[in-house]
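Structure (tokenized):
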């Protein structure tokens, strides 16, 4: 009887998913979400490539994804900027954000761990300090961290991905709220959100979060009118 030949088990390391393109994409997302790319600001592909220490190709591919998502628009063949925000688009973003982000806060109220609440309180303190010091960049970074601590606590990667797409479109325009009094007013709403989540009151958390979205909308709508 012929001997059965056994095949050796393959010992191959898995392919790395974290490609240069993905890294470039995440870095540009961070710049948008943290308010580093403001409306009216033009950024060149070459400047991003040099800042990231990569060639222009992964940056260009990452920008294609963000352009398709409506987060950025091509200004020239080699530069990008934040798309113009119309009143209709602002209203549409608000409507979807109210539904999705409100839902995420309701889910988070039931699922938040003690560590999540500790982090949320820490981020609220950073927001309060940044607002008092009128430090716009620190405020925008902390605002993103505060909100996404809540959304991640909903334990739904699908929901968080949807919210991030919305924030990539509205995030740069939060820069325009400086000097409007919104940052200070928003912190009162943030405090209400923290208190509601600590009490595991999902309805109250969603109500306060939606008020935060509406307050920003009203100011931006006046600017765009």
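Design, position by position:
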């Amino acid at each position: 009887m012929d001997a059965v030949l056994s095949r050796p088990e393959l010992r191959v390391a898995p392919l790395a998913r974290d490609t240069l393109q993905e890294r470039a994409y995440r870095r540009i997302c961070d710049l948008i979400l943290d308010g580093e790319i403001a409306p009216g600001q033009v950024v060149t592909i070459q400047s991003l490539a040099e800042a990231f220490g990569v060639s222009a190709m992964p940056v260009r591919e990452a920008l294609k994804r963000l352009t398709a998502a409506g987060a950025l628009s091509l200004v020239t063949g080699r530069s990008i900027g934040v798309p113009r925000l119309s009143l209709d688009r602002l209203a549409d973003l608000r409507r979807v954000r109210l539904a999705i982000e409100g839902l995420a806060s309701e889910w988070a109220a039931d699922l938040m761990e003690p560590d999540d609440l500790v982090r949320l309180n820490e981020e609220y303190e950073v927001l309060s300090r940044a607002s008092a010091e009128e430090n716009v960049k620190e405020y925008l970074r902390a605002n993103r961290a505060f909100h996404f601590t809540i959304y991640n606590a909903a334990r739904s990667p699908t929901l968080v991905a949807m919210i991030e797409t919305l924030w990539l479109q509205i995030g740069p325009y939060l820069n325009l709220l400086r000097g409007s009094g919104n940052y200070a007013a928003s912190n009162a709403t943030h405090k209400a959100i923290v208190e509601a989540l600590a009490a595991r009151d999902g309805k109250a958390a969603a109500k306060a979060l939606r008020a935060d979205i509406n307050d920003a909308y009203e100011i931006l709508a006046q600017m765009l009118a």
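Reviewer-requested clarification: The CA atoms of residues 114 and 155 lie 14 Å apart. Strands lie at 42-44, 73-76, 79-81.
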